[in-house]
Amino acid sequence: MQAEDALRKIIHIDMDAFYASVEQRDDPALRGKPLAVGGSRERGVVMAASYEARPFGVRSAMPAATARRLCPDLVFVKPRFEAYRAVSEQIRAIFARHTEIIEPVALDEAYLDVTENLLGLPTATAVAKAIRAEILESTGLVASAGVSYNKFLAKVASDHRKPNALFVITPAMGPDFVAALPIGRFHGVGPVTEAKMKRLGIHTGADLRAWDLDRLTATFGSAASYYHAVARGIDGRPVRAHRIRKSIGAETTFSDDTAAYDVLAERLAPMIEKVWRSAEAKSMRGRTVTLKLKFSDFTLVTRARSLPAPVADRESLERIGLDLLRGLLPLRRTARLIGIALSGFAADEAGEPAQLGLGL
């Protein structure tokens, strides 16, 4: 653990099944039923799944057809982004009563630096309890919270006992907690990297910690420094209240390469959803859409389209992304990665947070 990590008090707030929970709150007939938001269109994906749907294996970013097969009684509702944004604004107003250092990740998720909190509460745990109670009272929704001395562990903590949970990882707990953590629970380790790590015998944080930096670099490239640090409970990233964003993007690496348009379009759909949700959360609108394909020989190709006005909605982003993909057909090689990005924003934000030291 680095000295600066011990000085921070970080909270990660994550609303539980946010879109689905808003729908169930607003329509009592949906309560207690397996529910999916989105997925009504061809090649659609599940944007959010209620906790009643999850025992069937239904999860966000899953193709709607797959979700229907897993749970025949699944109820689909169309997303209402205006409703979700309104609730998100209520939640952020609650955050702002406690700290000025807020880093939104999505409409339903944010990091807060409460090293010094505005109400003078004695601990970060007390702040997290207060925020969760205020969210419930104000919105009727529940949130999970993770409290720790860095962003990585705060994120892990918020997910540890979901839903409707508060979990704290203190500096004394951190290294041992990470050592026992399954590698798939590491933020930043996606399914493809998880599978690769497991093939190499890395199943837990302790296994990852056993690799020195040189070996990690040779195997994982630029991500090695991050893996080396978080395996030891170290994460020096600050909570950034304002960040300059030149683009918002998402990409996925396949477990099996493909050149088929239908397969590529299906794999692109969750990336489109992720980018649009992030843009919505940050109230950012971009004019340029960029599609990225990496082929099996690791060569890379990108195609971009710039509009005279910002992309208006998710459907427009999807249409442009699929148009760019069709423009690359037929593919003469199989692809191993697809991604999409939105850029050309109307305005950027800039700023720098400050931090001082107290305990958790």
TrEMBL record:
<keyword id="KW-0234">DNA repair</keyword>
<comment type="function">
    <text>Poorly processive, error-prone DNA polymerase involved in untargeted mutagenesis. Copies undamaged DNA at stalled replication forks, which arise in vivo from mismatched or misaligned primer ends. These misaligned primers can be extended by PolIV. Exhibits no 3'-5' exonuclease (proofreading) activity. May be involved in translesional synthesis, in conjunction with the beta clamp from PolIII.</text>
</comment>
<feature type="active site">
    <location>
        <position position="109"/>
    </location>
</feature>
<protein>
    <recommendedName>
        <fullName>DNA polymerase IV</fullName>
        <ecNumber>2.7.7.7</ecNumber>
    </recommendedName>
</protein>
<dbReference type="Pfam" id="PF00817">
    <property type="entry name" value="IMS"/>
</dbReference>
<dbReference type="InterPro" id="IPR043128">
    <property type="entry name" value="Rev_trsase/Diguanyl_cyclase"/>
</dbReference>
<keyword id="KW-0515">Mutator protein</keyword>
<dbReference type="Pfam" id="PF11798">
    <property type="entry name" value="IMS_HHH"/>
</dbReference>
<dbReference type="InterPro" id="IPR043502">
    <property type="entry name" value="DNA/RNA_pol_sf"/>
</dbReference>
<feature type="site" description="Substrate discrimination">
    <location>
        <position position="19"/>
    </location>
</feature>
<feature type="binding site">
    <location>
        <position position="14"/>
    </location>
    <ligand>
        <name>Mg(2+)</name>
    </ligand>
</feature>
<keyword id="KW-0479">Metal-binding</keyword>
<comment type="subunit">
    <text>Monomer.</text>
</comment>
<keyword id="KW-0808">Transferase</keyword>
<feature type="binding site">
    <location>
        <position position="108"/>
    </location>
    <ligand>
        <name>Mg(2+)</name>
    </ligand>
</feature>
<dbReference type="Pfam" id="PF11799">
    <property type="entry name" value="IMS_C"/>
</dbReference>
<dbReference type="InterPro" id="IPR024728">
    <property type="entry name" value="PolY_HhH_motif"/>
</dbReference>
<dbReference type="InterPro" id="IPR036775">
    <property type="entry name" value="DNA_pol_Y-fam_lit_finger_sf"/>
</dbReference>
<keyword id="KW-0460">Magnesium</keyword>
<keyword id="KW-0239">DNA-directed DNA polymerase</keyword>
<dbReference type="InterPro" id="IPR022880">
    <property type="entry name" value="DNApol_IV"/>
</dbReference>
<keyword id="KW-0963">Cytoplasm</keyword>
<keyword id="KW-0238">DNA-binding</keyword>
<dbReference type="InterPro" id="IPR050116">
    <property type="entry name" value="DNA_polymerase-Y"/>
</dbReference>
<dbReference type="GO" id="GO:0003887">
    <property type="term" value="F:DNA-directed DNA polymerase activity"/>
</dbReference>
<dbReference type="InterPro" id="IPR001126">
    <property type="entry name" value="UmuC"/>
</dbReference>
<dbReference type="InterPro" id="IPR017961">
    <property type="entry name" value="DNA_pol_Y-fam_little_finger"/>
</dbReference>
<comment type="similarity">
    <text>Belongs to the DNA polymerase type-Y family.</text>
</comment>
<feature type="domain" description="UmuC">
    <location>
        <begin position="10"/>
        <end position="190"/>
    </location>
</feature>
<keyword id="KW-0235">DNA replication</keyword>
<keyword id="KW-0227">DNA damage</keyword>
<keyword id="KW-0548">Nucleotidyltransferase</keyword>
